[in-house]
Amino acid sequence: MVSLSPSTILGLERTMNKTEADPTEIMDKETRTTEIEEEEGQENYGEGDTVDAKPDRRSRFLFFGSKKKDGKLQEKEQSSESHYRIVSPTFQYKMSHRRIGKCIIINNKNFDEKTGMNVRNGTDRDAGELFKCFTNLGFEVTIYNDQTCKNMEWLLKKVSEEDHSDRSCFACILLSHGEEGMIYGTDGAMPIKSMTSFFRGDMCKSLLGKPKLFFIQACRGSEFDDGVQTDSGPPNDMIETDASPRHKIPVEADFLFAYSTVPGYYSWRNPGRGSWFVQALCNVLDEFGKQLEIVQILTRVNYMVATNFESWSEDPRFSEKKQIPCVVSMLTKELYFN
Predict the structure, then answer these.
(1) Where is this region: Disordered (predicted)?
(2) pLDDT at 36 over 60
């Protein structure tokens, strides 16, 4: 049996007191550790979707994703206060309203001398063919001839203020001289956007979520498309040009612009037969207007204009030129006229 002196026993007791942990101290440490982890988690969770622009502390967006901690990805817990709304999509516009829609044709043929613009021979034929074509599709069609800039703007503003609740869509056809971004009234040019903006989602509520179609037969510049050599048929007659659940949607959504040519180029018109673009558009709509989707229709129009037409003129500078239409679509669904 080992005998310990009183001084040895006292030393051992002091050593044990130093190595044993105080339970209250352990709890304090655990509490502090938990608080730090919660603060870190809250700080990371507040970081959300952002934009590629200068930082703005006023705009933060919560998101679902993963955060990185200690080199590993950890799944974030779902917030009970914010979430993405999942909407079941419908991929076709509803075309079963009582009326399919209104179609406005602005046909400008004669221009004030001060504009320097020539008479647009052949445009009356275009207007007549378009009237028949869109009437057959079920539209209520009205033709307005030789309109000034002020009259064109007033006319479309008035139409945009009508109640279109029982209509499925809206169509507007502009036949005139033009430049890039501009269309001519009989007394001068005006921005196309100044007319189309009346039908934005925040301006024309009864057409919100419905297709707004604009067909524009006009030049968009003064360049010629010489084309490339390929096997082609005989040239056409002499050609003239038109120179010179509840959810938010974007205000610019559901528009479609079908231009007769691409930016910067002339658009061709035959004085006897009408413009290339309108001829092709009416041909395709007459045959496939109630079968194909609108983008399919306009793709066939592009093909027909590109392959079936070539300019001829006594002035060689205007001969053997080509043209390709241009479609700009902000439609959010498929559009069938059936």
Answers:
(1) 1-53
(2) no
